[in-house]
Design brief:
Layout: E1 16-18, E2 21-25, H1 29-46, H2 53-58, E3 70-76, E4 86-94, H3 95-101, E5 110-111, H4 113-116, E6 121-130, H5 137-153, E7 156-166, H6 174-184, E8 193-194, H7 212-217, H8 221-228, E9 232-233, E10 238-240, E11 245-253, H9 259-264
Parallel strand pairs: 6-7
Antiparallel strand pairs: 1-2, 2-3, 3-4, 4-6, 5-8, 7-11, 9-11, 10-11
């Protein structure tokens, strides 16, 4: 059986209720288990990731990092289920938890020493997913509101993570990868670099051949969200064969996030 753990320290942001939806940090093994069930449904059943035999048997997505992370969840209280009605989730790991674990998840793909060396609290984001019927503006607003509340509560100065584009055929991703490389590359002091053995070049098309508006349209909503917060992209992409994705490193320096963008993620949720 996979290991379950609640938040890695007591307390946390106050839950927020918007009509039938509640966004909160998972506070019980049952809520984390429901989040892992949703992750399995989205990543493995919908997106055709490759589960281990244990994952397939349990119908759960899990790894060794889960026990060290905080799990943001959205519940739909209109759903009458025997298990917690988790319809969206996000996973966070802060500096102290990464030390206990031995590393951040991103370090399997990127050299993130420049991010780890950043002063103040840092956090890694990952495993974000939303159930199909809930992929709408309200739920995305709530997810980002949960991120912002968490960042404020723990005074996070820098957040980062691996964000995914669907598929592993690089030629099919030439436009979005080249766009991110030319228009959103992180400054040197925040530029994580893909590990040499996994490094995939992103500079696939000349800058003058890229239509910025159309290229932005090709990006997954999660990456768009990071960019709207003023996020940057690291050096090089990484192919993740297990999840059938191509990953990029995203970093957001909170001091550069304007009130305009924070308010954007609070909009239309009341």
């Amino acid at each position: 059986m996979h290991q379950l753990s609640t938040a890695n320290q007591p307390g946390g942001p106050t839950p927020i209720r918007v009509r039938n939806l509640e966004i909160k940090m998972a506070g019980s093994p049952a809520e984390i288990d429901a989040a892992q069930a949703l992750r399995y449904q989205v990543f493995y059943q919908e997106m055709s990731a490759k589960p281990s035999a244990n994952m397939k048997q349990q119908q759960r997505d899990f790894d060794r990092f889960d026990a060290f992370c905080d799990h943001l969840i959205i519940l739909d209280h209109d759903l009458k289920t025997r298990t917690p009605p988790v319809i969206a989730t996000y996973r966070f790991m802060r500096r102290k938890a990464a030390k206990k674990c031995g590393q951040f998840y991103s370090q399997d793909e990127y050299n993130i020493d420049c991010l780890i060396d950043h002063a103040g609290e840092i956090m890694e984001l990952g495993r974000s997913c939303v159930a199909i019927p809930y992929r709408n503006g309200l739920v995305m607003q709530l997810l980002w509101r949960g991120v912002v509340e968490y960042v404020r509560f723990y005074d996070v100065q820098l957040m980062f993570g691996c964000a995914s584009l669907p598929g592993t055929t690089i030629d099919n991703l030439a436009v979005p990868l080249s766009y991110l490389h030319h228009f959103h590359q992180a400054p040197p002091e925040l530029r994580a670099k893909a590990l040499a053995k996994r490094y995939v070049h992103m500079n696939l098309l000349p800058k003058d051949q890229i239509d910025e508006k159309n290229a932005m349209f090709t990006l997954p909503p999660l990456i768009k969200g990071y960019l709207r917060l003023g996020g940057f992209i690291g050096d090089g992409a990484v192919i993740d064969d297990q999840f059938n994705t191509t990953d990029v490193n995203v970093v957001v320096k909170m001091a550069l996030v304007t009130d305009k963008y924070v308010k954007h993620y609070y909009g239309r949720t009341e």
